[in-house]
Specification:
heterodimer; A: about 240 residues; mainly alpha; elongated; B: about 290 residues; alpha/beta; Rossmann fold; Alpha-Beta Plaits; 4-stranded antiparallel beta sheet; 11 helices; about 35% helix
Chain lengths: ~240, ~290
């Protein structure tokens, strides 16, 4: 069977992704009409969900891949190298799938808002300003999600390898997610933290380059941590 | 076909602590081996290196001549089940874990896995974390046996299993071995229970090799000499004495080493009683800090 690690990871992660996406969609679809009882709806609820929670969710998937799936992969006779190579592809596949689902969510929300005559404002000016700008929504989220997922994997590798010393990896992670976060997505803030500022209108090529560099550096650091990571016996 | 295992000068260090200390031995393969050692003797560290779960601090482990660490050709031939296993998360359903094993392991035998799930009465839709310790151990056994890996290792895999489940494990292990011979290493404290299953024994203590022998040969080398104290002392002079106990004028001495026909005749002539030592007792004596055979 070809690409076994990729299959295992995709099967586990994409299924969770779809379930969480559906739950988030229902949540927003219920929350926004409830909010509309008290005040006028002027912003996109889905934008908040996809920009803020979406990144952390992808971070969590990356963390899970290294912390939980890597030991299982080794226990079943595969190498860390096989894992790293195939997991790198998985970060692109899963973040791509997540970006597509986000775009679909924007489309569905657009239909709901139009039917209710609400304003679907997407926040600050970014790489996309309309919920119907499907290609821009997809690539912007894809790029940012891929970086966040790799950073999640890197942080997991740091803590699994170094224990409490894994904290040293956290500033590296922040450094990697800052440039893409500043450059894209109509919300130039770290999730759940105040706005850090904006680079204004950054050319698409620069945004993609920034994300690609962050993604590659994140992968390189992760590999340096997992290449001889011991699989510790689980407590019983 | 079982795998050959060569452990060459392997050390495992955790900071200042040396768990395995320049250990070397070879297992020819196609046998069931017992790896015995007291708590903290280095068994899990050693098996972790053999199973490529960790890199050795020094030395090499070869599987069929190939270094095992980060070598896919070698690691595919190895399955290590430590305690309740490293291959399953607590939130994973058993069905999911079996599917994962089938995807990752080329030699996986799905039919055997289903048989073993039935044998140990493990429900497919249960979550691993919801199982009792004994059932989790049983699932580890399922993953190990159904892996059909040429080198399959169980590190205290019987943990928490009740006696009926342990006997099921031993029976299943023997049945598997008869159907498809391979190299099996079982690390355990339950020596007498497993003695009938094991063909060779490797004993380690403080990370060093104490002994590597066939079980039958080891049994024949341990003898308890019982009789009048002075006669026992005369008889054991020059032999390796593992332990001595006295009760009044009667003395019992555990000696290690084969007794030839002439010595046995002499024991009879002096009215001494020669008894085999249980494997478990022999293990305790051999790993005693003051053990004479070391």
């Amino acid at each position: 069977m070809k690409w076994p690690v990729l299959r295992v990871l995709c099967r586990a992660l994409v299924s969770v992704l779809v379930v969480v996406w559906a739950a988030a969609l229902v949540f927003v679809a219920v929350l926004v009409p409830v909010v509309s009882i008290w005040r006028e709806v002027t912003i996109s609820g889905w934008n908040v969900a996809s920009v803020q929670a979406g990144r952390w969710f992808l971070f969590g998937l990356g963390y899970y891949a290294v912390h939980d799936v890597l030991p299982a992969v080794i226990a079943h006779g595969r190498t860390r190298r096989e894992f790293a190579a195939q997991a790198a592809v998985v970060t692109l596949v899963v973040s791509g799938a997540a970006a597509l689902l986000v775009a679909v969510g924007f489309g569905l929300e657009f239909l709901l808002y139009r039917a209710m005559d609400w304003t679907q404002r997407l926040g600050e000016q970014g790489t996309f300003s309309s919920a119907t700008d499907f290609p821009a929504i997809v690539w912007a989220h894809w790029a940012v999600f891929a970086v966040w997922m790799v950073v999640g994997a890197m942080v997991a590798a740091g803590f699994d390898r170094l224990g409490g010393g894994g904290l040293v990896v956290v500033p590296v992670g922040v450094a990697l997610i800052l440039p893409p976060g500043l450059a894209v997505n109509g919300s130039n803030s770290l999730p759940f933290l105040p706005t850090l500022g904006s680079w204004g209108s950054v050319p698409t090529a620069v945004v993609l380059l920034l994300c690609a560099v962050s993604w590659a550096v994140g992968l390189a650091v992760t590999w340096s941590l997992v290449r001889d990571l011991p699989v510790r016996a689980r407590a019983v | 076909m079982g795998a050959r295992v060569d452990v060459e000068g392997v050390s495992v260090r955790y900071g200042a602590v040396t768990a395995v200390d320049d250990l070397s031995f070879s297992l020819a393969g196609d046998k069931i081996y017992g790896l015995l050692g007291r708590n903290g003797s280095g068994k899990t560290s050693l098996l972790s290196v053999v199973g490529a779960h960790r890199r050795a601090s020094a030395g090499t482990v070869r599987i069929d001549g190939e270094p095992v660490f980060e070598n896919g050709r070698a690691t595919r031939r190895v399955c290590l089940v430590r305690h309740t296993g490293d291959a399953v998360g607590t939130s994973d359903r058993l069905e999911h874990a079996l599917l994962q094993a089938a995807t990752l392991r080329e030699s996986w035998d799905p039919d055997r896995a289903v048989e073993l799930m039935d044998l140990f009465e493990l429900p497919l839709d249960a979550k691993f974390g919801e199982l009792s310790l004994g059932k989790r151990s049983a699932f580890g056994v399922v993953l190990g046996l159904a892996s059909r890996a040429p080198l399959t290792m169980f590190d205290e895999a019987h943990l928490g299993m009740d006696a009926p489940s342990r006997y099921k494990f031993y029976d299943a292990l023997l049945a598997d071995f008869a159907a498809a011979p391979r190299t099996v290493i079982v690390s355990t404290h339950l020596i007498e229970e497993l003695a009938a299953v094991l063909e060779e024994i490797v004993i380690i203590d403080s990370g060093r090799l104490v002994l590597h022998e066939e079980v039958d040969a080891l049994r024949s080398r341990g003898t308890s000499v019982v009789g009048e104290a002075e006669a026992v002392d005369r008889f054991v002079a020059g032999l390796t004495v593992l332990e001595q106990r006295e009760l009044g004028r009667t003395k019992e001495a555990a000696v290690f080493g084969e007794l030839d026909g002439a010595r046995r005749d002499r024991a009879r002539a002096e009215g001494l009683d020669l008894r085999p030592i249980a494997l478990q007792d022999l293990f305790v004596h051999l790993t005693e800090p003051a053990g004479g055979a070391r």
